[in-house]
Amino acid sequence: LSNCNLHQGDALQLDFATLNAAPRTLRVVGNLPYNISTPLIFHLLKNAELIRDMHFMLQKEVVERMAAGPGGGDWGRLSIMVQYHCRVEHLFNVGPGAFNPPPKVDSAIVRLVPHDVLPHPAKDHRLLERVVREAFNQRRKTLRNTLKALLTNDEIEAAGVDGSLRPEQLDLAAFVRLADKLSEQAPKEPVAD
């Protein structure tokens, strides 16, 4: 495996830019601890331009959430932000019997391939993250209520979105339009990564 380098350490702390990888050359593979899978994936998405693909074994429920589409209960912050950056492929499931001792949950293998060109580029991806986070903090409320600290109902409507909808009813493109509408405002407070 001369073309393979293993890096030991805390993956949540690793600055992938320090690997001096050419764009789209890193291949990330792991059987992720379920308790850090979502934070680690968000950390990796910050370096998507370096990554060719990622293959992970995760809890099946997490893979289903990543691959979900609008309108269902699995569609949420994880789905939107992963799909903003990557194509998601739920490759196959791994039952508990494949492990000794067998876990109490099913697992699945997922492939994440960063987009060469974002299908719905936001003017500021940090604002997209913020809009999505705010919208899904209270997912059973309407957008005009969940986003009222960020956008007025008129601004939501000006972005081509019905403020009476719930967040799980919007597709990725609609969230990008809301983030772009927010970017037109003078910042109310600094946006943190």
TrEMBL record:
Q: Which InterPro entries match?
A: KsgA/Erm, rRNA_Ade_diMease-like_C, rRNA_Ade_methylase_Trfase_N, rRNA_adenine_dimethylase, SAM-dependent_MTases_sf
Q: Which GO terms describe its cellular component?
A: cytosol
Q: Where is the Ribosomal RNA adenine methylase transferase N-terminal domain positioned along the sequence? A: 1-116
Q: Which Gene3D superfamilies match?
A: Ribosomal RNA adenine dimethylase-like, domain 2, Vaccinia Virus protein VP39
Q: Which residues bind S-adenosyl-L-methionine?
A: L1, D10, N31
Entry's transmembrane regions = none
Q: Name one GO molecular function term.
A: rRNA (adenine-N6,N6-)-dimethyltransferase activity
Any one Pfam family here would be RrnaAD
Output the PROSITE patterns linked to this UniProt entry: SAM_RNA_A_N6_MT (PS51689)
* SMART domains the UniProt entry points to: rADc
Coiled-coil regions listed in the entry? none
User: Could you tell me the keywords of this UniProt record?
Assistant: Cytoplasm, Methyltransferase, RNA-binding, rRNA processing, S-adenosyl-L-methionine, Transferase
Please tell me whether the keyword Iron is annotated for this protein.
no
- Can you tell which superkingdom this protein's organism belongs to? Bacteria
Q: Does the keyword Isomerase apply?
A: no
Question: Which protein family is it in?
Answer: Belongs to the class I-like SAM-binding methyltransferase superfamily. rRNA adenine N(6)-methyltransferase family.
Q: What is this protein called?
A: rRNA methyltransferase
